[in-house]
C-alpha cells in the first residue's frame, strides 16, 4: 500500500452539482497529480500541483479546478457535473515534478454522476 | 488523439508462460516509459520503468524491451503466475518541470490461468 489516501472512496452526485475530492500525499512528497480514469480506459492527466501552485494541466475544461495546501494535501473540485464525469479519480504524489520520479497512486475515488 | 497505443486489449496465459504486452508511441519527445500494474479497486502501482538510452531493463521476472527507432516498447513477464492477473498500463512522459504528465495506454487485462 502507498501512503497516498483519497476520500471519499465512492460518491454519487446528480448532474449539475459540484463535488470536492480529497487527497493526502505521501510523507515527504510535495507534488500531487490528478488523473481521471474512465471505465476500461487508461488514466488521463487532469493537472499537477507543486508547492501549492498549478504546474501543468491536461485537456480538461475550467470547471475542473484544484488546490494544494501547505501540508501538500490536495483537492480536486468539479463544477456543473456532467454524466461523462463518471469515472475513477486518481491522485498521485511524488517527491518532485521530475519526469523520472516515481508517482505513487492512491486507491482512487469512484464518482458516479446520475 | 491517442499518443500511446497498447495491445493486446486482453491476454490469457497459462501459469509458467510468458506474457507479452506491446506499446507504440508517437511523440518523439517522450523520454520516460513506465509500466503500471493495477488490481481491481486499487490505484496503479509502478512496476518497472525505462529511459530511451537503454534497450532493455530487467527486474526479476519483468523485462522492458525498448526500440527507439520503431518508437515501440514492450513488457515481458516471464514464468507468469496467477497473482500476476491484473490490468497493465504502459505510459510515457516528456521531461519534468512545467506540464509534466504521464500519458497512458488503454490497458491490457492479463489473466494467468493456474
Write the topology of this structure.
The complex is a heterodimer of chains A (114) and B (114).
Chain A: E1 5-7, E2 10-13, E3 19-24, E4 31-37, E5 44-50, E6 53-57, E7 64-68, E8 74-78, E9 87-94, E10 104-105, E11 109-113
Parallel strand pairs in A: 2-11
Antiparallel strand pairs in A: 1-3, 3-8, 4-5, 4-9, 5-6, 7-8, 9-10, 9-11
Chain B: E1 4-7, E2 10-14, E3 19-25, E4 33-38, E5 45-50, E6 56-59, E7 62-67, E8 72-77, E9 86-92, E10 103-104, E11 108-113
Parallel strand pairs in B: 2-11
Antiparallel strand pairs in B: 1-3, 3-8, 4-5, 4-9, 6-7, 7-8, 9-10, 9-11
Description of the molecule:
The complex is a heterodimer of chains A (114) and B (114). Chain A has 114 residues and is mainly β. Chain A has no helices and eleven strands. In chain A, strands 2, 4, 5, 6, 9, 10 and 11 form a seven-stranded mixed β-sheet that branches. The mean pLDDT of chain A is 93. Chain B is mainly beta and 114 residues long. Chain B contains no helices and eleven strands. In chain B, the strands form two sheets. In chain B, strands 2, 4, 5, 9, 10 and 11 form a six-stranded mixed β-sheet that branches. A five-stranded antiparallel β-sheet of chain B has the order 1-3-8-7-6, with no helix packed on it. Chains A and B meet through β5, β6 and β10 of A and β5 and β10 of B.
Shape of chain B: globular
> Would you tell me the overall average pLDDT of chain A?
93
- Number of DSSP E strands of chain B: 11
Q: Let me know the number of strands of chain A.
A: 11
Which percent band covers the strand fraction of chain B?
A: over 45%
- Unreliable runs of chain A: none
How does the major sheet of chain B shape up? Answer: 6 strands, mixed
Q: What's the SSE pattern of chain B?
A: EEEEEEEEEEE
How large is the count of helical segments of chain A? 0
Amino acid at each position: 500500500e502507498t501512503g497516498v489516501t483519497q476520500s471519499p472512496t465512492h460518491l454519487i452526485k446528480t448532474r449539475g452539482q459540484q463535488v470536492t475530492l480529497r487527497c493526502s500525499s505521501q510523507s515527504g512528497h510535495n507534488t500531487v497529480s490528478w488523473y481521471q480514469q474512465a471505465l476500461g480506459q487508461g488514466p488521463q492527466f487532469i493537472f499537477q500541483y507543486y508547492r501549492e501552485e498549478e504546474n501543468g494541466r491536461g485537456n480538461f475544461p475550467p470547471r475542473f479546478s484544484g488546490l494544494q495546501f501547505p501540508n501538500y494535501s490536495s483537492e480536486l473540485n468539479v463544477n456543473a457535473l456532467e454524466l461523462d464525469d463518471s469515472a475513477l479519480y486518481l491522485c498521485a504524489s511524488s517527491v518532485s515534478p521530475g519526469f523520472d520520479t516515481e508517482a505513487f497512486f492512491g486507491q482512487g475515488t469512484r464518482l458516479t454522476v446520475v | 488523439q491517442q499518443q500511446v497505443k497498447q495491445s493486446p486489449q486482453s491476454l490469457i496465459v497459462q501459469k509458467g508462460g510468458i506474457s507479452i504486452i506491446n506499446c507504440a508511441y508517437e511523440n518523439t519527445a517522450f523520454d520516460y516509459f513506465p509500466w503500471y500494474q493495477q488490481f481491481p479497486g486499487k490505484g496503479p502501482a509502478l512496476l518497472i520503468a525505462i529511459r530511451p538510452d537503454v534497450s532493455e531493463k530487467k527486474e526479476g521476472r519483468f523485462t522492458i524491451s525498448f526500440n527507439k527507432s520503431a518508437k515501440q516498447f514492450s513488457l515481458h513477464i516471464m514464468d507468469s503466475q496467477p497473482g500476476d492477473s491484473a490490468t497493465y498500463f504502459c505510459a510515457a512522459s516528456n521531461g519534468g518541470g512545467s506540464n509534466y504528465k504521464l500519458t497512458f495506454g488503454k490497458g491490457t487485462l492479463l489473466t494467468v490461468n493456474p
